[in-house]
Design goal:
196 residues, alpha+beta, eight-stranded antiparallel barrel, globular
Length: 196
């Protein structure tokens, strides 16, 4: 504001104009630094840290209580070798160990869509909602491409809430077990996330 006032009320040329611009830039830089510090203080953000999370994602398509439900598909989806066009909404359990009876630590809520005509690959948008331990009440949002026949798949952590505000990172998914008859699967996740 001061820099703008200085420029608008001066009839300067050449060297004096350059000085005025320099003053404006310095003032703007100071304001940006002050704003950065103040918003971090307002949000109660500390120094950035790195967390590593490990859990199992139970994708249950069939059985008494499916947690992954098909909600859309094209006329050609069922005849497509890659299920192209299939959209599933999920509310899958996240557990500490691979067994369905392992300790529940949260839910994986969101959707996936079959988005490739050449291989079975899903576009995934999932919120990991944690219900246990120091991250209880916090969420992480993961988005990415998941070619499920690959041994390892990497997806992006794009944000979060609670302890994971302004989070960024990546998730490595590995199929722990998959049943071709029931189409149910357990997927192991290793997530590395930078957050405040």
């Amino acid at each position: 504001m001061l820099g703008f006032f200085f420029l608008s009320n001066s009839k300067m040329r050449g060297h004096s104009t350059a000085m005025a611009v320099a003053v404006l830039l310095l003032f703007s830089s100071h304001m940006a630094t002050s704003n950065t510090e103040s918003w971090r203080e307002i949000l109660g953000l500390q120094k950035e840290k790195v967390s590593h999370l490990h859990f199992y994602f139970h994708d249950v398509i069939t059985g008494k209580n499916p947690t992954s439900i098909a909600v859309a598909g094209a006329n050609t989806t069922l005849t497509s070798p890659t299920f192209f066009g299939l959209v599933n909404v999920v509310d899958n359990t996240l557990t500490k160990g691979p067994k369905p009876t392992s300790k529940l630590i949260g839910r994986g809520q969101g959707f996936f869509a079959s988005s490739s005509q050449s291989e079975i690959s899903f576009f995934m948008a999932i919120n990991f909602v944690f219900m246990e331990g120091k991250f209880n009440g916090s969420t992480l949002t993961m988005v990415g491409r998941n070619p499920i026949m690959h041994k390892e798949r990497e997806m992006t952590v794009v944000g979060g809430s609670g302890a994971f505000r302004l989070a960024r990172g990546y998730a490595i998914a590995k199929t722990f077990v998959s049943d071709l008859r029931t189409k149910n699967a357990i997927v192991e996740y290793h997530i590395t996330v930078i957050h405040f």
